[in-house]
Amino acid sequence: MSGTRSAQPAQPARRVLVAADKFKGSLTAVQVAERVTAGLRRVVPGLEVEALPVADGGDGTVAAAIAAGFDRREVRVTGPVGDEVTAVFALRGDTAVVEMAEASGLQRLPDGVLAPLTASTYGSGELLRAALDAGARTLVFGVGGSATTDGGAGMLAALGARFLKAGGEPVAPGGGGLAELASADLSGLDPRLGRVGFVLASDVDNPLTGPKGAPAVYGPQKGASPQDVERLDAALGHFVRVLEESAGVKTAAELAGSAGAGAAGGIGFGALLLGAGFRPGIEVMLDVLGFAPALERADLVITGEGSLDEQTLHGKAPAGVAAAARAAGKEVVAVCGRLTLPPEVLGRAGIRRAYALTDLEPDVATCIAQAGPILERTAERIARDFLS
Question: Structural domain of residue 72, as residue ranges?
Answer without folding.
Answer: 61-282
